Amino acid sequence: MGKNYVDIENDHGETLRYRKHANGRGLIAHGAKVHATAVVEAGAYVEPGVQIAAGAHIGRGVWVQDGAVIGANADIAPHAYIGHGAAIGAKAKIGVRTHVGDHAVVEGGSLIGDDEVITDGERIATDRRGLRLAA
């Protein structure tokens, strides 16, 4: 049986250990909290301090930066980027290759399309069709 972890050197020369999540085999850094019912697909990286709630789905190639919070049953499509300290609400859907900036907030139930950019610190809410609601 192979190892259930991978050691990766970061930009500062420090070696970080990532374990493979049981649901999907994505890489979870030491210090991240991922609920057992969440799915983190292979090729996804979850950095230290991240919290991922029950039923969330993190697609292939997604990078979730340190301190981000992903709500229950949120769905992050492949190759999205979730910035430092960002918050994705429960049942929110983030599209393919979408970039959510540092400390941005996507309200629960929001629908963010493919290839969108949510800027650093932006707070966004949409209806079920993806139309932005007034702040």
TrEMBL record:
Pfam families according to UniProt: GMPPB_C
InterPro entries: GMPPB_C (IPR056729), Trimer_LpxA-like_sf (IPR011004)
Residue ranges occupied by any Mannose-1-phosphate guanyltransferase C-terminal domain in the UniProt entry: 33-119
Name of protein: Mannose-1-phosphate guanyltransferase C-terminal domain-containing protein
